[in-house]
Amino acid sequence: MTAGPRMRVLRSPEAVRRQVRAWRAAGERTAFVPTMGYLHDGHLSLVRRARRNADRVAASIFVNPAQFGPREDFGAYPRDLPRDLGLLRSEGVDLCFVPATGRMYPPGHRTEVHVTGLEDVLEGASRPGHFGGVALVVLKLLHVVEPDVLVLGQKDAQQAVILERMIADLDLAVRVARGPIVREPDGLAMSSRNVYLSPEERRAAPVLRRSLVRVERAARNGERSAARLLKLVRDEFAREPRARLDTVAVVDAASLEPLKRLRGRVLVPVAARLGRTRLIDNVEFTVEEDGR
């Protein structure tokens, strides 16, 4: 199955592995971008970053059931494979892996992957089992594609931390590159789930970004108290009745340990509900231990 003169669309892990190994035998490096499809400019920015990091670009489209909870939106998650393949082809992607669920999780599949201490906090506390499912599918995809570079997005910062830890702990021969968050003109982080928002909810959604802008500005101006930064976020949400703050934290960007006073690499993740839609965003910055 093909989607144009350049991009190969493959459904067999064996076919993907043969192709990437052939590129490697020819001295070509491969960068890999895993996705769940319904692509937007955020995904495509990762494809472009992959192109800058390697000779060949491979992507995958797979809506992974293992990372959805029983009351989450697996069945309703937006899907448009022909559109997605067209977008990847237009970006010059060389290979797209589109496996069937039964091929990824055949009958009798029992293996799980857990990154302890990182997967059950922050987003993981709100979505039990989510990051175990993410780690499992990415590990499987890495074994299929065998890339030189894995490209991840900063919007899913906790996910990136967990996958980086998994790769380091398991001595996988792949380098991780992170791409920055891509935003709409009003600041809302691009997400496939943004299509769920009603017009009123969409107008309210930039409150996530506004709250994080206040946090970063305060930190740049010398604020070092995590409690005061958390109050800035809560105050911003209090002014937007259509958005309900779900979680916010101030943590070390590598360990995800909560901080009382800002130091080093700091991550401030936020999650909010607008109607039935849950959106996430974050800001990461580095501070010195000075100021207040």
Lay out the secondary structure.
Elements: E1 8-10, H1 13-25, E2 30-35, H2 41-53, E3 56-61, H3 81-90, E4 95-97, H4 101-104, H5 123-126, H6 130-145, E5 149-153, H7 157-169, E6 175-179, H8 199-204, H9 207-220, H10 226-238, E7 244-248, E8 251-252, E9 264-274, E10 277-287
Parallel strand pairs: 1-4, 2-3, 2-5, 3-4, 5-6
Antiparallel strand pairs: 7-9, 8-9, 9-10
Question: How does this structure look, described?
Answer:
There is one protein chain. The strands form two sheets. Strands 1-4-3-2-5-6 form a six-stranded parallel sheet, sandwiched between helices. Strands 7, 8, 9 and 10 form a four-stranded antiparallel sheet that branches. Helix 2 (41-53) links the parallel strand 2 (30-35) and strand 3 (56-61). The model has no long low-confidence stretch (mean pLDDT 96). The protein contains ten helices and ten strands. It has 292 residues and is of the alpha/beta class. Helix content is 36%, strand content 20%.
